[in-house]
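for the writeup, i need someone to sanity check this before i put it in the appendix. the sequnce is what the collaborator sent (i think, or maybe the updated version? ugh). structure was predicted straight from it, no edits. if anything looks off just tell me and ill rerun, i have time this weekend
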Amino acid sequence: MKTNDVILQTTTKLIFFIIFLFSIHIFFAGHYTPGGGFVGGLLTASGIVLLLLAFDLKTVTTALPINYTVMTAVGLLVAIATAAGSIFFNVPFFTHAFDYFELPLLGKQSLHTAMLFDTGVYLVVVGVTMTIIQSIGADD
């Protein structure tokens, strides 16, 4: 039986969103500075683990009804499809493309196919990490 630790649970809710927002920042900053899908995925998984420490597995699963095995498979498909997409344009495997676009509210931004690959990596890292953590934590 888990104790009802109100202070830990209340602060965890706030800290989780701070960690999650920082992981999104690291994800988007990863093309020009250290970071990207792997580090962003690890940060997101660490935020969810913090939720698991403050609450129980059943509560977190109810709040975040995510099948992490499916998330891993989708991420792997996105990463492989992005890397293999270069073959259709007759360039070497894993060749990424980018261009500059004028986006509403953001102005001129460069968009990369590497971001799609990083999205796949992000999903794989969160999915695999949380599958491992939940399988360990589900043991009675």
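Residues 52 and 78 are 28 Å apart (CA to CA). Helices lie at 6-29, 37-54, 57-63, 68-84, 114-137.
thx in advance!!
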